[in-house]
Design brief:
Layout: E1 3-9, E2 27-30, H1 37-42, H2 44-65, H3 77-101, E3 108-111, E4 114-119, E5 122-127, E6 130-141, E7 145-147, H4 155-158, H5 163-166, E8 175-179, H6 183-194, E9 198-202, H7 214-227, E10 229-231, E11 235-241, E12 246-252, E13 255-261, E14 263-266, E15 270-272, H8 274-277, E16 305-307, H9 318-333, E17 348-350, E18 356-360, H10 363-368, E19 373-379, H11 384-389, E20 395-401, E21 407-413, H12 417-429, H13 434-439, H14 450-459
Parallel strand pairs: 1-2, 1-6, 2-3, 6-16, 8-9, 8-14, 9-10
Antiparallel strand pairs: 4-5, 5-6, 7-15, 11-12, 12-13, 17-18, 18-21, 19-20, 20-21
Helix pairs in contact: 2-3, 2-6
The structure holds flavin-adenine dinucleotide and nicotinamide-adenine-dinucleotide.
Cofactor: FAD
Family: Belongs to the class-I pyridine nucleotide-disulfide oxidoreductase family.
Keywords: Disulfide bond, FAD, Flavoprotein, NAD, NADP, Nucleotide-binding, Oxidoreductase, Redox-active center
Length: about 450
């Protein structure tokens, strides 16, 4: 039974922990899939590589309004797909080759198989030639999560896609049903819709992206309903195979109905892989949602076992997984002087159309916590650049503590939303109040960040 100083399970953010400072340790990396994990192979990176051409493909409709007649003559799907994965796949392969072959990694053994705990700090790895059990002083659990599929009768039989498979299809279908109304649904509706697919979104609740601030969710739902066939408040009763593809029988406020398409994308959330890794067998505690429980130092309930990323974090965001990996790296190297993860102001962005970005409390959160707050909304249409664009739907909403002007939350829907949000994340992280931020610096005129400046000025009553 080989014994290691350190075993890392999962090569998403987990792969970034090892550098030359670990050269004197005997390390094993265990990976059951493709090197690089979700973000690189089936997540952030390929999706955004599809979103960008989708933005371009959607431009004619927008340009026409402003007097520029563009024409979308076609979308070469296979070429786009092959370009995307022709760039990504070599990176994943290069990551594996680096760990296998490069002298930097002389102390590293790569196990290309699935790990499963069988006892205290004892991990059995399924390999092509059989099973091997590893033990170690320390473990880093970075095994991520996987797409969940709801228990809809017939779904397993009809054939559906998840985000893992939909980006590699051979042909774009004429029609697609997207079940779910979260991040993946919003991004893929934009991609498929811009490429000419008729998209139907089936939502269980009364709004799309309902975890966003209510006004943002409402605005996005209105805008998406103009582009796509959006079915809200629908229960999925049954899935059936038809000659065209898939039919989904729904029950909604108006009674029973059926939607039909050639492709069904299930985008109903993800769950952590703690069950498949059987972390309980090594004594690691999990929450009811299956997330590994960690303290602020990313330590699990078992000494010497750390966890990070989607396995332990309900944020399910790459920048969070990367931050936590840096915390774990430090704490492995300096256990006598550990650092804590900083989850105070975790932002996110949804790369749909229009773009959405958010950090901190929504108005709903602030009210639920009984916080006395003020809020301000600034439309893009009322700042110079947004006015020039004749934007009619975008806005920024800021929330601050009453009296102090301490920023509590920021929510933007509209062009360049993630980029516009970043200075607000900075202000919140470094404790800059709304008035100082608005008045203590120049704002380039007539650039888009004037949206933030004007929202801040409104917030402080100027
Ligand atoms: C479609 C999509 C789009 C996304 N877009 C964004 C975005 O724009 N921005 C953003 O911030 N986040 C985005 N995310 C989320 C982001 O991808 C994840 O938060 C991030 O990849 C999590 O990293 P991780 O290292 O925790 O896990 P992962 O990257 O999932 O890595 C886990 C690794 O562990 C391996 N593994 C699992 N179990 C075992 C086992 N038992 N034995 C061995 N190996 C195992 C897996 O094969 C995998 O390689 C997106 C996710 C999806 C699905
Ligand atoms: N831009 C980004 O940062 C980005 C992009 C894509 C994905 N992600 C990450 O990936 C994770 C997974 O994305 P996602 O969109 O699958 O999850 P999500 O949690 O964002 O949305 C899941 C949706 O499915 C719905 N749902 C759940 N069960 C259902 C059921 N039985 N029937 C119908 N609807 C149901 C929920 O109400 C919700 O609308 C996200 O949490 C996100 O953090 C991030």
């Amino acid at each position: 039974m080989p014994h290691y100083d350190l075993v890392i399970v999962g090569t998403g953010s987990g792969n970034s922990i090892l550098d030359q400072r670990f050269a004197d340790r005997k390390v094993a990396i265990v990976e059951k899939g493709v090197f690089g994990g979700t973000c690189l192979n089936v997540g952030c990176i390929p999706t955004k590589m599809f979103v960008y051409p989708a933005d371009l493909a959607a431009a004619p409709a927008e340009a026409k309004r402003l007097g520029a007649d563009l024409e979308l003559r076609g979308v070469r799907w296979r070429e786009i797909r092959d370009r995307v994965f022709g760039r990504i796949d070599p990176i994943a392969d290069g990551g594996l080759r680096y760990r296998l072959d490069h002298p930097d990694n002389d102390g590293v053994t790569v196990y290309q198989g699935e790990g499963r705990f069988t006892g205290h700090k004892e991990l059995a790895v399924t390999l092509p030639h059989g099973e091997e059990t590893l033990t170690a002083d320390e473990f880093v659990l970075a095994a991520g999560g996987r797409a969940t599929v709801p228990d809809v009768p017939g779904l397993a039989e009809v054939g559906y896609h998840t985000s893992d498979t939909v980006m590699r299809i051979d042909e774009l279908p004429p029609r697609a049903i997207i079940l779910g109304s979260g991040f993946i649904s919003a991004e893929f509706a934009h991609v498929l819709g811009s490429f000419g697919v008729d998209v139907t979104i089936v939502a269980r609740s009364g709004a799309l992206l309902r975890t966003e601030d209510d006004d943002v969710s409402l605005r996005f739902t209105e805008l998406a309903s103009r582009r796509f066939d959006v079915r809200l408040n629908r229960a999925s009763v049954r899935a059936r195979r038809t000659s065209a593809g898939v039919a989904l029988d729904l029950r909604g406020p108006g009674g029973d109905e059926t939607v039909e398409a050639e492709l069904l994308l299930v985008a109903t959330g993800r769950r952590p892989n703690s069950d498949l890794l059987d972390v309980a067998a090594t004594g690691v505690a999990t929450s009811p949602s299956g997330h590994v429980v960690v303290d602020e130092y990313q330590r699990t309930s078992v000494e010497g076992i750390y966890a990070l990323g989607d396995l332990s974090s309900w944020y399910e965001l790459k920048h969070v997984a990367n931050h936590e990996a840096r915390v774990v790296q430090h704490n492995l190297l300096h256990p006598e002087d550990p650092i804590a993860a900083d989850h105070r102001f975790v932002p996110h962005a949804v790369f749909t159309s229009p773009q959405i970005a958010s950090v901190g409390l929504t108005e709903r959160d602030a009210a639920a916590r009984g916080i006395r707050y003020v809020s301000a909304v600034q439309d893009y249409a009322d700042i110079a650049y947004g006015w020039a664009m004749e934007d009619t739907s975008g806005f920024a909403k800021l929330i601050a503590e009453e009296g102090t002007g301490k920023l509590l939350g920021a929510h933007i829907i509209g062009p360049q939303a993630p980029t516009l949000l970043q200075p607000l994340i900075q202000a919140m992280s470094f404790g800059l109040d709304a008035r100082s931020m608005a008045k203590g610096q120049y704002w380039i005129h007539p650039a888009m960040p004037e949206l933030v400046e004007n929202a801040l000025l409104k917030l402080v009553g100027e």
